[in-house]
Amino acid sequence: MRLEPDVLFVDDGDVLTSAGSAAALDLCLHLVRRDHGAGIANAVSRRLVFAGHRDGGQRQFVERALPDVPDASLAPVLAWARERLDGPLTVADLAARAGTSPATLHRRFRAELGTTPLAWLTAERVAFACRLIERGGAGLDAVARASGLGTPANLRALMRRHTGLAPSAYRARFARPGPGQPARSPR
């Protein structure tokens, strides 16, 4: 037996080998083709969403370990911001955390999330305010402060814009009843 460095798999009669995990699929399709015909093998490859036949021709090796690549998405910045919704946060703060300029951050937000940093931050704060209202017990002043929306007037305006409901209507519809309070029926 000899080494074939430039092929995906080898069929040497009763010994079959593949160059790696994807090449194992090539080998399996080869076996189906050999044992059941090209029509069946093509049907199987379509079900697998895998090419019916791939040419080899590339050496199957990795020369060196791949370097660690830092997460280039906005996910770390978004997680960081979500932990700080109750405090003052600006686009400049988000950009500094991302290690980029506000203009570049704006482009990245548009590309990854389809929105602006300020619109995302406002939507996150409104969603957080809604969760606080759903828990019940907190007044509008406390909810506005805790969600970073500042004042009850700002909370009312932004909740109406984002949910279509005033905080009181949202509370009536979604808040969990407190201990000893009857459950509300939906209207």
Layout of helices and strands:
Layout: E1 9-11, E2 16-18, H1 21-36, H2 38-48, H3 75-82, H4 91-98, H5 102-113, H6 117-135, H7 140-146, H8 152-163, H9 167-174
Antiparallel strand pairs: 1-2
Helix pairs in contact: 1-2, 6-8
| Record field, number of beta strands | 2
The low-confidence parts are 58-70
Domain unit count: 2
Structural class computed from helices and strand pairing: mainly alpha
Describe this protein's structure.
The structure is a single chain. By secondary structure, the chain is mainly α. The protein folds into two domains: 1-62, no CATH class; 75-174, Arc Repressor Mutant, subunit A (Orthogonal Bundle). Helices cover 54% and strands 3% of the residues. The protein has nine helices and two strands, in the order ββααααααααα. The protein has helices spanning 21-36, 38-48, 75-82, 91-98, 102-113, 117-135, 140-146, 152-163, 167-174, and strands spanning 9-11, 16-18. The chain has a two-stranded antiparallel ribbon with strand order 1-2. α6 (117-135) packs across α8. The longest helix is centred in the last third of the chain and has 19 residues, at 117-135. Mean pLDDT is 79; it is low at 58-70.
